[in-house]
Amino acid sequence: MADAPSITTLPPSPYRHGWRLFCFFSSAFALTGLVSLLFADLLWRTGWSTSRTVLLVLFIVLFLLTAIGCMHGLYGFFIRIFGTQTRITALKPFKDQPLESSTAIIFPIYNEDSFRVLAGLQATYESLERTGKLDKFDFFILSDSTNPDCWIEEERRWSELVRDLDALGKIYYRRRLFNEERKSGNVRDFLNTWGKRYRYFVCCDADSVMRGETLVDLVKMMEAHPTVGLIQTVPALVNAESLFGRIQQFANRLYAPVFIAGLNYWALDLGNYWGHNAIIRTEPFMQFCDLPQLPGRKPFGGQILSHDFVEAALMLRANWEVWMAYDLEGSYEEAPQALIENAQRERRWCQGNLQHSLVLFAKGLRGVSRVHLLLGIFGYLASPLWLAFLIAFYWIYCVQKLSGLSNISVRAFNPYLKNWSGTAHAFLIFVICMAVIMLPKLLSLIDLSRDQARRKQFGGLFSATAGVVGETIFSTLHAPLLMLWHTRFVLNNIGGLSVAWTTQKRSADGTDWLYAFQRHWGHTLIGLAWGWFTWQLEPGLFWWFIPVLAGMVLSIPVSVWTSRRSLGARAKSLGLFLTPEETRPPLELVSLRSQIKIHELTGGEPRELAHRGLAEAVLDPYVNAVHVTLLREKQMNPVYAEHLSRLGAGTEAVRELGEKLLAAGPAKLTVRERMAVLADQKVLVWLHQQAWVRPEEKLAPWWKAMIREFSQREI
């Protein structure tokens, strides 16, 4: 392909990153320095000690992270007021760019709800069809599913979707026999097989939906900028039904425009990649973004889990530009619907981000890439640092109280605070910290007030303000739980415990009380013990720590109540936490929601008996034919035989497993054995024949029940 200049001829970046980086981070450091001096002065008044040095260092690090977040909001706010041309959507006119290249839209999945995945794919497909540019795009479902029933259901739904949309040759399905290196390995396997056919590919998540016009615009922008290797959209959270999900969704839609505009101010063409809803230039990605294996043992060594940050850094190292199209609408995703499910996802991200500490000093990385990696690492280290800060504070307070010394021993060093009491001095620092935390939220509301059409999309300014108040209260309760969770995750990783690769729970079924108790009893116990200790130490101090303690003590009811759909619906009826995608839903989401509603009303798929997917693959002639056809196609791959041998799936051995399957039922086979049976097309053809012709006395009772059910189906 000759769609872009050679890597050796790529021109240097025309943007003045150094000046922008200096202004942005100098602002954060200057603010941190001023407030840290105030805090150091407060500590000086009570007599310096080693523990106070530790407390000051922790304060500086934590406040700096907060100040950087504040600067993202502040810079982004002014950019949205005064505008900027240094964004990928405004650099060059692209709307009239001819669409000549082919683009693959890939959906890597792993034991997901195949109905939801394909419903999102269908909404995206139909949206692209309305643009008249569908012929330039192909869709790929890249399965890494290890559950036999998921495998068969994916194939069946894929074949039905292709038939319903008349999309033969446009929507493809491929399942790897071995899911090596997880999602990044899945994408690499696809590119090694199909990559040369496509100039670009768009990586989606299992719950992604994208507007057709957005996809077309992304391709046109890539065509207009031959030195751009990746453009990351900013996905809007949608379809939340629980109270927790709606709060997260509201915060994402209200705060993100300001924050990401601030991020783009200093990143520009040295942006980042978030793993999905992004368009990528295939050739440089294949050439430069093959991930290394990290040295040492898991969890820090081995395969890189959070691959996206590293892939962006490798793209930038090769001088390809990475942009964030933060003002491009039409990119959507979903999020966990409960605190516990959100924490489970955070655990996986925590390990992946901490691994970046080994990548941070890799040779040749751009300085901005190291900043992205460092901010990602401290996104999880901040919690144990906050906990360490609180422990250090209590240590100092206990030592001082037990020593019998007075609270204030000297005047403040700052001349303006010499006549202030220590309590007033501490309160000033507290007010400044709260102002730094709350300022971006206030600026987001002011930004919203400037746009009448956008105000209506959030239900009006009063509704949005009430939503910010509610979100702030919830975040105050949620923050101590995240502190404890993240601290445990970090300590587990330091202790050598690696996270398993599990399917993300995406439903809004709600958390039951017993499950919440099992997950939160430790948080509650810590909160009660911490509160009792604080009260015994100093009742006045107890009231200052109520926000931290309340989040722990109330963790069980908060976790249960915020997971409820009913409370989410109640908040919506009151006009709380509304988002543009609810008040003026785009056609893509209307299509998706209608499919989900019909699926729910019809009861979805019956699941009275286990191993239903295996039964369909053997008994249903249509499903059996689809599955066998896909297996025969795999035989064209030269590594297929090698993969089968790794499964222990020689035909004779699998035939014996097939006999066992018929005589004893699938429960007597391990998952690995059931997968081996499903991977052999000759045995599947034989099983289909034998299951229907053998006498009932030679079949397991499970087969008899399944055959009766399949016999009663209408053809």
What does this structure look like?
By secondary structure, the chain is of the alpha/beta class. Among the domains are: 270 residues, Alpha-Beta Complex (Spore Coat Polysaccharide Biosynthesis Protein SpsA, Chain A), CATH 3.90.550; 100 residues, no CATH class. Helices cover 62% and strands 6% of the residues. It has 28 helices and ten strands. The strands form two sheets. The chain has a seven-stranded mixed beta sheet, sandwiched between helices. A three-stranded mixed beta sheet has the order 5-10-7. Helix 10 crosses helix 14, helix 11 packs across helix 14 and helix 14 crosses helix 17. The longest helix has 37 residues. 42% of the residues are buried.
In short:
The chain is α/β, with parallel strands linked by helices. It has helices spanning 17-45, 50-82, 114-131, 148-165, 182-194, 212-224, 243-267, 282-288, 307-317, 339-359, 367-403, 422-449, 452-457, 461-494, 513-537, 539-544, 546-553, 555-562, 565-573, 580-583, 587-601, 612-619, 621-634, 640-646, 651-664, 671-678, 681-693, 701-711; strands spanning 103-109, 137-143, 171-175, 200-203, 209-210, 228-233, 236-237, 278-281, 321-325, 331-333. Helix 12 (422-449) crosses helix 14.
